[in-house]
Structures are given as C-alpha cells and as structure tokens.
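Ops channel
N.P.: pipeline sanity check, posting one input/output pair.
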C-alpha cells in the first residue's frame, strides 16, 4: 500500500500518462468526418474555455475564494481542461455510439489532467499520499543524545568545525511522534531533518528550527531538507536540526495556532511539548539565539505569532508567505466560533497589536513572499514594517514570480537560511 501512496503525481509516469491520454483523446475527438463538425468543435472548445475564464475571474479575482493569486500556468491548465470538456460535450451530438463512449471517458481524463497540472504548478503535493494526507515518510533514527555540555564550540562553529571522513553527503529525514504531554493536542507525527554534521560519530550541537507548513498541508520535511542539503554541501555538512511540527491535527483545520476550546491547545503543543521534546531528544544548542520558529503560509502566521508571544524561546523568526493574523482568511467565522464574538479577545491575538505594545531588540526576523502573490506581498510588507518598528532586525525579500507555490516556499527558505546561517555561527558574516 505504501508503494501506491508513494506514486508521484506532480511529475513522472502517472503525470505524463494522463496528459498523453488527454492529448490523444482530443485528437480522436477532433478527427470526425462531418461538414458541420469543425464549427461545432470550435464552438465547444470556445464555450468551454470562456466558461473557465469567467469562473476563474469570479472565484479568483472577484470573490477571492482561495485567498491566493493563481499563476498563469494554473489559468492555462484549468482553461485547457475545461475547453477539452467542451469539445467532449459537443462530440455527443449526432455521433456514433463508440464516439459517445470515447467522449464519456474523455471528460474525467481531461479534468484529471487539469487537476494534475494545477497541482504541479503549486508543487506542494508531490505524491498520491500527500494529496490525500497520507504520509509515506518512515520514522527517523535519532543519534544518541550528547552528555550535558558536550558538543558545544567555544566560538562560531564555522571556525572550528571540520567535516570528518565518512560524513554522509546528505542529511537524514524521517518522522517522530512528539508526545502532547502538556497540551493533549492530537498532532500528526512531526517531520525531522538532521544535517550531515549531526550524523557523525562526534556531532556538534546545532541550532534548532521548528517549522510549520500551510493549511491544508502536512508536516513534510522534504522541502526544507532539499534546501538545507545544498547549504550543508557548502558549509562542511553544517545546518540546523529541523522539526516540521503539525499545528493542524489530522482534520487539517485552521487551528489559528492558539489554545482554544474549538481546536485544542496548539500554542502549548508547539511552544512547550515540541520545544521540550527537541531539547531532550536532539543535540541542539541552548539559548534563544539558536532557536528559530518558522512557517509557510498558515505556518508563517503561526511563526510570527509565536515569535512575538514567546520571545524568551525564539530569537529568530522566518515567516514565508504568512497570513497577517490568526484566521485571517475567515475572520468573521473565527470571531464567532473561536472567540465567541469577543472582538477585543481576537484583536489581542494579532501580531501587529502585540508588536505595538512591546519591543524585540534581540530578535532577528525574515519575511518573504512571492513577488506576484499580491495579497501576501502586502501582508509581508505590513508585518515586516511592524516588526522593524518593534526593534527587530528585519530582512524582507520577494521571491521573483514565486506566487503562492513551492517556488515561494523554496525561495523563502533559501533567503531565510542565507540570513540565519551567520546568525547561528554556521557561516561567516557577509562582508
């Protein structure tokens, strides 16, 4: 069963097979001997395409149902798929039985092809399992915990660390169950990334990153691992140890990253349970300067919220395409469901309001967004400005043409680690 869930859907044989089948079906439907067919086919294609463009305009631009901008590629995939469906519908008129069968089969193939194309554009669900929320990542084998005080360098690690012979070329990923001792929150297994230096016989203590993904989404460590393996190659195997924690739960609801009656004690889970587990089971450096709270999209909002609410824990914040405040996509519903209509209680949880009341002179924060992700660029600028006004050392970066896709995620991670590696002592300060 694991092999089934591991099938790649954003590329590979399945993707290529569905797209090829769709193209073949279009050709078969177009090849028809009838003097009136070219006009009917053109009408079906045109009507299907115009229907898609109208619906996309209403759903994406006017109503903004998904709260993100669609890339040009997404518009193309959806429009092409719907146009092909229009061709299939037009093929039913005065057609032989076999052609109607072909047209009937073609409709789901066209829709599946469009769906796979859009999914590939987002780039976040790589396998069949990730589409349906089924993890195929195996439990990680953790290195032995170092004795107290061991593995800590006297100065910046980049000055003293030398990669030993036999060090793995890449890091290790897997999952770990983090007991919700204090929170009782029902989280899915966390994703873990261990850089090559952590896998050596005498590993150093390394910085800790706690990362949260978007909603819907899963605690998948593969994205951060791919970026950090590149950094490790350039820095003698050094990198942070990463815990990709689950702030959503099995139902993948937007928990707002709060302790609430509606969703459970998510804030306590991340800041108490996850943090204590990491300190007890991972060879991480002590102190807030080496602890980073990070997130993408929904997780980005969680990161800035936790960073300003728990500055004693988190000396660094990485907010990638994050929302402005908890539940920003559906504020009225969350006001009623989570806060019982108490606007004051809701406002008290918003990072901008929290930063207006306190300064954070010893916190480093990185904010990023896709340059063409209009709403999230506005949010990233607003929140980064507030963080700077609150005394944080702030870096702001727009990922060129990143949209709200894997391009923005990878670009945000890359920029964030570029800023944080010197901060952690894993690389020389630039200049």
């Amino acid at each position: 069963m694991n092999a089934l869930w591991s099938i790649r859907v954003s590329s590979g044989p399945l993707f290529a097979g569905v797209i090829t089948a769709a193209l073949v079906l279009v050709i078969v439907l177009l090849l028809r001997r009838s003097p009136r067919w070219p006009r009917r086919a053109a009408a079906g294609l045109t009507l299907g395409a115009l229907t898609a463009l109208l619906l996309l305009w209403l759903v994406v631009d006017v109503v903004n149902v998904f709260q993100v901008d669609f890339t040009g590629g997404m518009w193309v995939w959806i429009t092409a798929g719907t146009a092909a469906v229009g061709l299939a519908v037009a093929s039913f008129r005065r057609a032989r039985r076999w052609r109607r069968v072909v047209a009937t089969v073609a409709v789901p193939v066209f829709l599946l092809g469009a769906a796979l194309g859009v999914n590939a554009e987002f780039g976040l669900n790589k396998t069949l399992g990730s589409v349906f929320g089924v993890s195929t990542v195996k439990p990680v084998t953790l290195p032995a915990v170092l004795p107290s005080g061991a593995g800590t360098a006297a100065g910046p690690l980049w000055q003293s660390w030398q990669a030993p012979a036999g060090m793995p070329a890449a890091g290790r990923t897997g999952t770990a169950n983090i007991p919700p001792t204090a929170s009782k929150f029902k989280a899915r297994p966390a994703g873990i990334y261990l850089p090559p230096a952590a896998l050596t016989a005498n590993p150093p203590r390394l910085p800790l990153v706690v990362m949260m993904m978007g909603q819907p989404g899963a605690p998948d460590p593969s994205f951060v691992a791919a970026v950090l393996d590149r950094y490790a190659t350039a820095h003698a195997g050094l990198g942070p140890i990463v815990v990709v924690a689950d702030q959503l739960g099995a139902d993948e609801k937007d928990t707002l990253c709060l302790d609430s009656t509606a969703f459970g004690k998510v804030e306590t889970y991340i800041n108490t349970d996850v943090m204590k587990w990491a300190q007890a089971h991972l060879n991480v450096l002590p102190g807030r300067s080496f602890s980073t709270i990070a997130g993408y999209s929904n997780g980005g909002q969680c990161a800035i919220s936790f960073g300003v609410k728990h500055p004693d824990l988190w000396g660094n914040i990485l907010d990638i395409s994050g929302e402005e405040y908890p539940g920003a996509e559906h504020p009225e519903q969350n006001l009623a469901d989570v806060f019982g209509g108490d606007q004051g209680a809701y406002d008290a949880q918003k990072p901008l309001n929290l930063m207006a009341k306190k300064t954070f002179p010893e916190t480093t924060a990185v904010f990023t967004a896709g340059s063409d992700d209009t709403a999230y660029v506005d949010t990233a600028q607003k929140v980064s400005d507030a963080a700077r006004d609150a005394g944080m050392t702030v870096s702001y970066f727009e990922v060129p043409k990143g949209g709200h896709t894997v391009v923005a995620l990878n670009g945000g991670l890359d920029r964030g680690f570029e800023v944080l590696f010197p901060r952690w002592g894993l690389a020389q300060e630039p200049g």
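N.P.: looks fine end to end. The first helix runs from residue 2 to 5.
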